[in-house]
Amino acid sequence: MPESSSSASDSLAEAAAQSPRSAESTSSTAAPKRSRRGRPGYDRETLINRATEVFVSRGYDGTSMDTVARELGITKSAIYHHVKSKEELLRLAINRGIDALDSAVEAESHRTGITALERLRLAVRASVLILIEYHHSVTLLLRVRGNSAIELEALDARRAIDEKIRSLVSAAIDEGGLRSDFSPGLITRLLFGMVNSITEWYRSSYPIDPDTIAEAVTTMAFQGLEA
Known about the structure:
About 70% of the residues lie in helices and about 0% in strands. The protein is mainly alpha-helical. It has 12 helices and no strands. The model is unreliable at about 1-40 (pLDDT under 50). α6 (about 85-110) packs across α8 (about 135-145) and α7 runs antiparallel to α9. The chain is elongated, with a radius of gyration of 31 Å.
């Protein structure tokens, strides 16, 4: 028995409603897709940078992970997504400055075709630039006192860098480039006493560019030291 036109129309509408494309269209209209949000907070490098600033401003020993989280405006779990502990965060913060300083001094120490005095000047100049670029990391490095295994490692790394500079000083004295009435150890301490003092007053807003500061330090230091 033939269906009435009304019944056929109802059947077609029902079939269309059950087709995949129609269901997908209906679902899309009713519940639009939401874009996935990434993990809130900081990436690892930014976390290290910001935490280093907090350690410098508040002091490492007096800063808890709760304080770091609060200062950064994130949760502690977001921090622990990147690091296991406060001590690991300290190591990462300090090592950024140590690695940069060591690489710079090492590179200048092995230059060829120039005198030991010139290599020393370049090493001191590079150290100033690194200190400015990694200001907070180097400041933190200079403040450690050996209160933990990580701090002792940092002190050993500092001594290794000092020894490389002292070797350059000794070579410059032997070549006659530096005055010999001061010991290599004393000259090294005087040089880096001047360089390290930059951490006490330098800020990113300082109106003189890093190259000019580096040139001023090396010029003032070596005018009194050259033979």
